Amino acid sequence: MNEFVSRRNFLTTVATQATAATLASGLVSAVTAQDQPMPDQLPIIDTHQHLWDLTKFTLPWHKGPETKPLQRSFVMSDYLEATKGLNVVKTIYMEVDVIPEQQVAEAAYVTELCERGDNPMRAAVISGRPGTPGFDAYIRKFANDKYIRGIRQVLHGDSTPPGYCLQPKFVESIQTLGELGKSFDLCVRPGEVVDAVKLVDQCPKTRFVLDHCGNMSVTSTDDALRSKWKLGMKELAARPNVVCKVSGIVVTANKDWKAEDLAPNINDTLDAFGEDRVMFAGDWPVCTLRASFAQWVNALKLIVKDRSLVFQKKLFHDNAAKFYGV
User: Fold this and answer.
1) In angstroms, rounded to a whole number, what is the distance separating the alpha carbons of residues 222 and 116?
2) What is the residue-wise DSSP string for 186-252?
3) Residue 125, φ and ψ in degrees, nearest 5
4) What is the pLDDT confidence band of residue 231, given thresholds at 50, 70 and 90?
5) What's the mean pLDDT in 29-55?
6) 258-299 per-position pLDDT tens digit
7) Alpha-carbon span 108 to 129, nearest angstrom
8) Edge-to-edge strands of the sheet including 207-210?
9) Dihedral sign, CA of 60, 164, 244, 215?
10) What is the DSSP letter of 3?
11) Which of 60, 95, 228, 273 could form a disulfide with 277 if both were Cys (CB 3.0 to 4.6 A apart)?
């Protein structure tokens, strides 16, 4: 796959590479050694916890055979079971692209979870549409909310053209986020990481989080695209108000993936951003299209095992605690 296109097209690609039986049985027969928690139980903050209750919310991307494994509710009890024994001590909710009419309800839903205290969720990044009429009033509702840390709009959909994030109204909205102390998650196609650089340069007071290592597929053979992605990653990493989530890329791997297949993209990301500006993220349950939560965690631990313990603690816990104030 040469580009991380729309969420649905991306999931279609994943689904066609794996049989339904493989999806149902846990997907990763070649990584059984990664199924169980590794001995070193570093505390983990999961900075990308998806949850969706289909009795409450509508997900437009959540239709068709390609997303069948995800076409049910995934709620907190499911997450707790999926992460059992892995020492996940805190989580940050990540929006799930609900229909715009339900964005306020989504925020209320996750705020209630944060307040309950019977689960690890401590903060949230909610959905929003920067640059659209009403966004300013919408985000100002959460200006003093102690749980809402930021906004994300997925920018790699078919309906989102290249350069969309550079429109003046969009830039203005992202500047407003900075004024309010809120962050913005950058979820872009790998060839458009360079556009993200231009956005960041116009919003020096806003904190940015690059999702999923810039969405570069681990199976891509497009050398030109990879070069453009690497350049964009280095440029973004040169901006001090940008951090990067190490996540998501496992779903771009082949069904018989191994940790070493993910290592080049991950190491390029870690080397670009350095030990103080990278954060672990689970991307559950989307990650289950290729791996269980445990398989993803333990693959990443294998990849970084030769880095210092200080580095590993920052990646899995400390940087997230600092960035999100949890």
Assistant:
1) 47
2) E---GGGHHHHHHHHHH-TTSEEEE-GGGG--TT---HHHHHHHHHHHHHHHTSTTEEEEE-SGGGG
3) -115, 120
4) very high
5) 72
6) 999 999 999 999 999 999 999 999 999 999 999 999 999 999
7) 17
8) 44-49, 88-94, 121-127, 148-152, 183-186, 207-210, 242-246, 278-280
9) positive
10) S
11) 273
Among the four given CATH numbers 3.20.20.140, 2.60.120.10, 2.60.40.10, 3.40.50.720, the one describing domain 40-324 = 3.20.20.140
d(CA 208, CA 222): 27
Domain limits, the chain = 40-324
Contacts of 97 (CB under 8 A, 6+ apart): 7, 59, 60, 61, 127, 154
**What's the DSSP call for residue 284?**
B
Tell me the C-alpha to C-alpha distance, in Å, between residue 295 and each of 56, 245, 251, 299. Answer: 30, 17, 12, 6
Select from 196, 165, 262, 217 the least CA-distant residue to 5. Answer: 217
Helix (H) or strand (E) holding 48: strand 44-49
